[in-house]
Amino acid sequence: MDYVGNVIRPPSEAKSMIIQVTVGCSHNQCTFCGTYKGQKFYLKDIAQVKKDIVEMSGYGIPFEKAFLADGDVLILPTETILDIMSFIFKMCPTVKRIGVYGNTKAILKKSPRELKELRDAGLGILYQGIETGNRELLKKIKKGAFPHKQVETAQKIIEAGILLSQTVLLGIGGTEMSEIHAIDTGKLLGEMSPDYASALTVMLLPNTELYRDYKEGKFQLPDKFGMLQELKLIVENMDVHRPCFFASNHASNYLPIRAKFPEEKDKIVSLINSVIEKKNTGVLRPEFMRAL
Ligand code: SF4
Predict the structure, then answer these.
(1) For the whole model, what pTM was predicted?
(2) Residue bearing the CA closest to ligand 1, atom 8
(3) Which CATH number does the domain housing residue 206 bear?
């Protein structure tokens, strides 16, 4: 396989066929993200992409899902994505669903017709990093997106019939913006009501702007109970209008939870509250086991 640089995929795509279509991320400016630092974004040679698909199909693994990496494949012209997807289905008939990452800019560039075309051709799920629902903080972390645009993109994806999976980041507002970040994030998730929502916890990576700020004393991470407080505020403020599966079981988090919204919301708030009140570190993931 012709994998170039860091090839990342969502945890739920661990058993998928991973086909690298682009290298890097078309945005590549988020202050907390070191994944593609120094990596220029480009579309790989389509002939090479197809060669990789042929190679994968030759392994005899009955993949049910495929994921198109890297950071932001949706930014490519729709025709290019359709061509790659149809080749995957042709070469790998066991594949039932294809997934991609898509940032706000990429989704806004697609018309509803193009998104439906992609859905009809087998694009089953789109993963999007939201990080926070606070406008000021989105600007500060250089996410290149604002809450009202995130709501618009969520509606477009849901209306196209593509599953939407979004992630938010505990700790990204630091101690300074911790509370407002969590409240606004919960509200935004409720307004968007994605099919899946997950919380990850910020880990400071040495090649990032956020790490530099931390080293210079301009940014401080909340402690583990501060992170739990954020988790609680997000859940409390998340009033969904359609079913959503919420999880914080990513390896970066201290407290893994999985819950169906809206029915299990109150149960989860009580659980987080009881861990905070009892300062129960026994149920938290130890620091050395946390990872991205
Ligand atoms: S967080 Fe996502 S959008 Fe931001 S730079 Fe990293 S890969 Fe790109």
Answers:
(1) 0.94
(2) 28
(3) 3.20.20.70
